[in-house]
Amino acid sequence: MSAPTLVTVDDVRAAADRLRGSIMRTPLIPAPWADPQRPLWIKPESLQVIGAFKVRGALNAIGRIDPDVRTRGVVAYSSGNHAQAVAYAAARFGIDAHIVMPEETPAVKVARTREHGARVVLCGAGRREAVAAQLVEETGATLVPPFDHPDVIAGQGTIGLEIAEDLPDVGTVLIPVSGGGLASGIGTAIRALCPDARIYGVEPELAADTAAGLRRGSRVSMSIEDRNRTIADGLRSQPSELTFAHLQHVLTDVLTVSEGQIRSAVAELAIRARLVSEPSGAVALAAYRHHRLPPGKTVIILSGGNIEADLLAQIVAQSPEVGVHQGN
């Protein structure tokens, strides 16, 4: 079997041209309270219109579908953020969207997906791909996968282009990893434009299949039951053959963080940075706080901010950050 063809920085540049004017060019926000030996900037993709980075890949992929085919609509499967992104992008193109979501998806993500006009089909754990395939057959619509597609990867990679333009001497970039499309795309851009930078993927200890796979040199499978234990519901997927090949090529390493560290990072972002982050979006800050990283300018990707209000309130109320902040 031949190796997958990797996305190039030229593919990412083409995606950036395609997306110009359709997405927010998110800023790099300095974190003055961070370690002065590792100056920190936050890339808040939570500020995108659907609350997460996924809108980049969805718009790029749907924009690349032949217009005559695109009129039949699109199908996607996702635990939430890709669902919202495809629903939003489909509405922008004036086409139907059929979105398959697991029954355990947070209600806020299901509601926001429907708000964009999509038809949502809920399914049991481990059934997303099968139900999506059935919908494709029934409707003739085009499948837009959450990460396993070069156009999706290239769209997510536009984040890396922006980082390289705004902070060309970046030393370390920390990126949440699940299916691997985000890290594949950003890593492709950073590796090409900032070749001396260290690029770390970050995932929960309870869903650390990528870390295990890179150590072994081949993909490692974890059961859905094991992966569903983490609070980071957006990081429960596993890399595909395509994304794993990218991760092997672009990542320096993969770091893991505990459930408590993820919760603390959500609270720190809310209290110190005044940014709302879902648990999946906060893992990069957790790694910054709890791993011994080299000195130098560091960027973390806050990948999404779609969190239930009650969960955010609970995490913030239980955090030591509350007392520290009130005492300043």
Automatic annotation (TrEMBL):
Key words, A-Z: Lyase, Pyridoxal phosphate
Entries under CDD domains matching the protein: Thr-dehyd
Catalytic activity: L-threonine = 2-oxobutanoate + NH4(+)
Enzyme class name: lyase
Limits of the Tryptophan synthase beta chain-like PALP domain: 22-304
EC number in record: 4.3.1.19
A Gene Ontology BP annotation from the UniProt entry: L-threonine catabolic process
InterPro entries for this protein: Ser/Thr_Dehydratase (IPR050147), TrpB-like_PALP (IPR001926), TrpB-like_PALP_sf (IPR036052)
Cofactor or coenzyme needed: pyridoxal 5'-phosphate
Gene Ontology terms for molecular function: L-serine ammonia-lyase activity; threonine deaminase activity
Pfam family, one: PALP
Sequence similarity: Belongs to the serine/threonine dehydratase family.
Function: Catalyzes the anaerobic formation of alpha-ketobutyrate and ammonia from threonine in a two-step reaction. The first step involved a dehydration of threonine and a production of enamine intermediates (aminocrotonate), which tautomerizes to its imine form (iminobutyrate). Both intermediates are unstable and short-lived. The second step is the nonenzymatic hydrolysis of the enamine/imine intermediates to form 2-ketobutyrate and free ammonia. In the low water environment of the cell, the second step is accelerated by RidA.
Record-given protein name: threonine ammonia-lyase
Organism field: Mycobacterium adipatum
Upper taxonomic lineage: Bacteria, Bacillati, Actinomycetota, Actinomycetes, Mycobacteriales
